Amino acid sequence: MTTIEITGSVLQEQFGRAVGRRLSAGTAELPYHVTERLRAARVQALAQRKAEATAPSVVANGHAGAVSLGRFGLWQQIGTVLPLVALVSGLVLINSVMNERRASEVAEVDAALLTDDLPPSAYADPGFVQFLKSGR
Questions:
Q1: Strands, E, within 63-121: which ranges?
Q2: Of 119, 69, 94, residue with least CA distance to 78
Q3: Does the N terminus or the C terminus of the chain have fewer Cβ atoms within 10 A?
Q4: Which one, of 99, 98, 123, 125, lies nearest residue 110 by Cα?
Q5: How much is the pTM?
Q6: Which helix (H) or strand (E) holds 81?
Q7: What per-residue string of b and e applies to 117-128 under the rule 16 or more CB within 10 Å gives b?
Q8: What is the DSSP letter of 56?
Q9: Cα 97 from Cα 91, distance rounded (Å)
Q10: How far is it, in rounded angstroms, from Cα 136 to Cα 132?
Q11: Computed over its alpha carbons, how large is the radius of gyration of the chain?
């Protein structure tokens, strides 16, 4: 939960308690059958609120929906962090594989240069490039 959500939740809780106190203050002069109906309604409201607090709910995020499992914040955090860990580890793996390929390609070129009949200085000679372009 963010600070704004916590603050909003606290404000809602305080408002609900204030309304409950105000309603309870006027019940002394009501008849018995009315107070009994109010008590039953309060019990139902509390039971429904407890059921809502533990039941899974669907939270809309833009165009996608995500299931919120009430108090299972740890699982939500794991579910959020796990794809990021998989992405980073995949990128590290790809980087290491690409580095190995580059190293093996450079090693092949070096081996070809060292085992060739021409000395390596001949490849740097501008006349050699002209020789290759002439097609002889």
A1: 64-68
A2: 69
A3: C
A4: 123
A5: 0.36
A6: helix 73-115
A7: eeeeeeeeeeee
A8: -
A9: 10
A10: 7
A11: 37
User: pLDDT by residue (tens digit) across 13-55?
Assistant: 888 888 878 777 777 777 888 888 888 888 888 888 777 666 5
End-to-end Cα separation, the chain, in angstroms? 75
Residue type, 103: A
Read off φ and ψ for residue 35, nearest 5 degrees: -65, -35
C-beta of residue 76 within 8 angstroms of C-beta of residue 69:
yes
Token readout for 86 is: 């998989």
The SS3 assignment for 61 reads strand
- Please provide the size of the chain in residues: 136
The DSSP call for residue 57 is E
